[in-house]
Amino acid sequence: MIVVIGGGPAGFFAAITAREAQPDIPVLLLEKHQNVLRKVLVSGGGRCNVTHNCHDPRELIKQYPRGGRELNGAFHRFGPGDTMSWFEDQGVPLKAEPDGRIFPTSDSSTNIVEALQTAAYNLGVQVRTRCGVKSLNFDPLTHEFHLELDDGSALSCAKVMIATGGQTSGGLHGGFALAAGLGHTIENPVPSLFTFKSQDPLLYGLAGLAAPKVTIKAKGQDLPTKGLVETGPVLVTHWGLSGPAILRLSAWGARALAEAEYRFNLNVNWCPDVSRVDLDNQLINWAESNGRKQISHGPELGIPRRLWEAILDKVHIPKDRKWAELGKKSRNALLEALTASNLSVYGKTANKEEFVTCGGVRLKEVDFKTMESRVQPGLFFAGEVLDIDGITGGFNFQGCWTTGYLAGMGMVQK
To answer: Domain 2-191+351-413: which CATH class?
Structure first.
């Protein structure tokens, strides 16, 4: 018998794959919570970003701050195209959005959950909920794994897979503790894909504002000398900053930002497509051509009107001042605020109801052809329990489908 610990996307896909490949081998899936696939259900605002429309593994691995090198070969064996084909074969049509994200055409994560549950049921996967695993040991005499469950009962099996997802709280527990107990090294888990808390005066009254393209750079004493830089859309929220650029920066800088205790300065260029010199010339030319107009009527710089007015307030330029009255000192202050605003960040917050972990089982201790442990034969891993995480856009789920598939095949091939 094969036991899969964890009823998330990786666990379900591994169990399904194992039964598809070898229908005569019993597969038992254990989930400690009442409901399975909880993260799938809430992901993408309830839409479920299944994967990303990127079919070149060399490009795909660039979207993983951790685990990209190990996933290169894995994506050649099972990639986004395979994921899309599998779900469409289950009767779930998918669509690609302009940015490459793949969703069910229904925009409902329920269809993804139902497809996985139906496939598992039809293949005879046994699913037990409210069934956590208290301990996991291996008997070298019988070559069996022994599991003690939270309710005090026990069971044994020939193969076991840990797919319990990540964790962001202190100490090692759940799947991390089980893996560590069998000799695995756990890279310190910290959050990834989070938003920034900031109460900088520039942001007051701007909640809900979206800047279409911004370059952000995290700087601080405890951060890399060159800083952490990203370009893309940014959203101002009631608590600070969010949006794709913020989430990507939080992923690539997850460990460094954790070590800085999420206190750092964020340098923001609101006009990244224009050099500082060219932007200065634009302001000069605009002032010469629109001298009688109020400064509140600014040039077309690709930033929202509300942001322009907030920047004027930041540099103490009255909005009713005429452009002809804008002196060099004020223009330089305006230029600095447009290209290098410094915002103070004092913490983080979760991205909606989702979380992603940086850290987990050390990758060199796992064979990525089969997802079997190099430390303990017969033990397999898949999903976020591994030190693998991607940026936002469907990449984390693809990591689950790929490693789940390889683990499912690996468990029944020997």
So the answer is: alpha beta
Radius of gyration from C-alpha coordinates of the chain: 25
Q: Where are the domains of the chain?
A: 2-191+351-413, 193-268, 276-341
Taking only the tens place, the pLDDT of each residue in 106-126 is: 999 999 999 999 999 999 999
| CATH match of 276-341 with 3.90.1640 | no
Question: What confidence score (pLDDT) does residue 74 get?
Answer: 98
**pTM tops 0.85, yes or no:** yes
pLDDT tier, 167 (very low <50, low <70, confident <90, very high otherwise): confident
Strand order across the 264-269 sheet: 341-345, 264-269, 210-219, 228-236, 240-242, 194-197, 347-350
